[in-house]
Amino acid sequence: MTALHRGLLGAALAILVALPAVLGSRALSVFVFIFFYAYLGQAWNLVSGYGGQLSAGHAAFVGVGAYTTTMLAMHAGVSPWLGMFAGAALAALLGAVVGFLGFRFGLRGFYFVLLTVAAAEVCRIVALNTDAVGGAVGLYIPFTGNAWQLQFQDNRGYYYVALALMLLATGVVALVERSRLGAYLMAIREDEDAAEALGVDTLRYKLVALVLSAFLTGLGGAFYANYLFSLQPNAVFGIPLSVDIILRPVVGGSGTLMGPILGSFILSPLAELSRTYFARAGLVGTHLVAYGLLLIAVVLFLPRGAYPPLARALGLGRPR
Amino acid sequence: MDLTFVVQGLLNGLLFGGVYSLMAVGLTLIFGVMRVINFAHGDMMIWGMYLAWLLATRLGVDPYLGFVACAAVLFVFGFLVQRSLVDRIVDAPHEMQILLMLGVALVLENVALSIFGPDPRRVRSPLALSTVWLGPVFVDVARLVTFGVAVGLTLALYLFLTRTDVGKTVRAAADNGYGALVVGIDVRRVYAVAFGVGAACVGAAGALVAPILPFSPSAGLTASVSSFNIVIIGGMGSLVGAFVGGLLVAVAESLGAVFFSPSLKELVSFSLMILILLFRPTGLFGRRG
Description:
By secondary structure, chain A is mostly helical. Helix content of chain A is 73%, strand content 1%. Chain A has a domain at 24-237.
């Protein structure tokens, strides 16, 4: 990264910080979605992009974080700012259990993918059948507009929290990328047998990546709950949310630091636009057809995502 | 608890197991031959259901005859998906294949949602009206026929794979794709046939289950996840495992519904899967490696 690139990055950041001064509430809400999905995508990127362990059930961690935070706030009066860490810890625990089941005995890839799907489904069914957490109706979060409750009178508050979340996750991933853990993870992704032969404790590092990723994703659940004000098992634990989380880093370039952010800047506005446009036209499900086609197109024509060719064009970064 | 309920649950589960077996056999065939997990499996199944529904409501074809047409359409679909999409990335990392099939699943489910809407539908068959009493327990004739046809199709597939030349090339390609290529088998064609046959299995399963259960586009995912469960329990890539696993999971779920609550029956199969992963991670009939 040259001084010029650094300068550009700083300028982009300054613009993002200043934006709420000029943008209206509706435009800000699009940015909130961009940042939040970039955040979730970045957390996913850690285990699936760098570690190569594809999770198709990250919604489970969002849901566990969201439900835990909300239950603590509603029944024990715990502020979501604190409750989110309890939610994240539970999500991390779930990640540890899933990872332990999926990574043991040298079981590879396929089992892990199916297990993550199963974990999210188990959470969904349990939530649907547990009256204490609202069952199929779910939970509705009362609006207080109190910042201590992670709620804000207008979108500016949410904007800055979402921006901070995105920067936090990107910082964590940047640290991991440069650390020993990151090197091990990439070695595991490229060739697990070779990594193991060289003495990398593959089980351990895959688990660490998953637990860290689950923790961050669970943290995001608190934001999800207090931005949308309602939690339904089918929405918060459903496969569509898991796919939403996967899609952005894959489109942007999984296993790259900027991929999830780029992917979210491309996809989130499109998703918002198509959702409102198609909904107005009374077409249910059409935007998901478009998602599916996009996913197919990216896999076939841009399997490394949009970032690597873009980075090359800008003369950035090392080719992988 | 009354013993009759338990026997009835056991019987209902076993009869439903035929459909589960057929679904799982299709999935395990695709996996065994290509090492590709068909994430669109359940969504192919709902298309089998809606095709059966279209045939029954528009042309008056009974689903117990219509399933042949559904299987044929799904065969062509699976063949084309393999040829035009999966074949391009068969050597890519497996996560790419999964993402690709996830894309296909999204398209299939939501095209069905756009056309048919979210309301549950049901196909009427005259058979669904009759029951036979065996002492204190009854047998739903529709379920019995569904079971018979599903088991028959699974057996036919087994014979196809072991007795016919095409079937033997499929097994050869599954055992060693490179070796098959060396002895002159057109492996790409075999892959397409296997994908088509797998899709036809689940399409037929969909058509056969349509007169028994109401269905909606969102059922696809649940069906996919059930198929994954069964295949993990039976052993990935094992046909016998998929068949036995299907019966086993169906009976377990049915008994779970009797002893606990119907809405929790899926948890029973998940628990079964977790037990298998803990104690016999390669599945009941799986081979190591």
